[in-house]
Design goal:
alpha/beta; about 220 residues; TIM Barrel
Length: about 220
């Protein structure tokens, strides 16, 4: 058994069956992806549009590609036909751009809204108040070619587990609250948990974890 297979097996052993594993393959080779693929994995996460496109064109077509990084508006068109789930939606502007591309190619695109839960100043994602506003004012109606499937969050990078738990709890509570105001059965994904904190995310009812370095090794 190779290293990647072994790492995946270790993670899967800790993962309840109803939680999905996204193997974050950014900066890693097609070869590494194929090792994970051959171990049975089908969900892979990338953070750069060009890298995702190149990999998608050269790797098996049953791979589900997730986009998890900052997405420039001029790259949306590139990934639109290939993408399974865009997890890193940070603004309504981005939603309208994606909606526009999706309509053009005649498919619905599934997304998660990224919520800013970490304390780090570098702000990614919607504020909790903006998200609440978005749903209570039914702003999703403006985007008929987008399927909003849930929320994504990144906790503060810290060894303070208490803090991480608190941040995951904030997004989990928000997720539960939104399910009561957003009448869409596809709104069912809470993407929290990475290499260092996925066991904590599982405790907070994560439905999808995104693991990179613990599977593929460090990215240099
Ligand atoms: C890189 C990245 C991951 C994976 O990080 P690891 O710590 O290597 O598991 C998960 N989510 C997002 C949004 C990322 O950018």
């Amino acid at each position: 058994m190779n290293e990647i297979e072994k790492n995946i097996q270790e993670i899967r052993a800790k993962l309840p069956e109803n939680i999905r594993l996204v193997c974050v393959s950014k900066f890693h080779s097609a070869d590494s992806i194929m090792q994970a693929y051959n171990a049975g994995e089908r969900d892979f996460g990338e953070s750069r549009a060009q890298e995702l496109c190149t990999k998608a064109q050269n790797l098996p077509s049953d791979i589900r590609w997730h986009f998890i990084g900052p997405l420039q508006s001029n790259k949306i068109k590139q990934i639109a036909p290939l993408i399974y789930l865009i997890q890193s939606i940070e603004s309504e502007k981005m939603l309208s751009q994606i909606n526009f591309c999706a309509e053009k190619i005649g498919r619905k695109i599934s997304v998660l809204l990224e919520v800013h839960i970490a304390e780090e100043k570098q702000k990614h994602g919607f504020l909790k108040s903006e998200i609440l506003d978005f749903f209570t004012q039914k702003k999703w109606q403006k985007f008929p070619f987008i399927e909003i499937c849930g929320l994504m969050g990144i906790a503060t990078y810290t060894t303070d587990n208490e803090k991480i738990m608190q941040e995951f709890h904030v997004i989990k509570t928000l997720f539960d609250e939104l399910k009561t105001v957003f009448p869409n059965s596809n709104f069912n994904t809470l993407s929290i948990g990475m290499s260092d904190d996925f066991p904590l995310a599982i405790e907070q009812n994560s439905t999808m974890i995104r693991v990179g370095s613990r599977i593929f090794g460090s990215r240099n």
